[in-house]
Amino acid sequence: MRVRPCRRDDGFTLVELLVVIVVLGVIIAPLTAVVVSYFRHTDRTTDRMAESHDAQIAAVWFTRDVQNVGVRDWGAAGLPMQQSIEINAPSLGGRFPCGGDATPEALVRFAWNEPVIGGPASLRVVSYVIVPAGEERHLRRLTCDDSGTVTSELVVAHHLDPGTNPVVTCRDAAGDSVPCSVVPPPAAVELVLVLRAPASTAPYTVTLIGQRRQT
Question: Most buried pick, 48, 93, 99, 164, via CB within 10 A?
Answer without folding.
Answer: 99
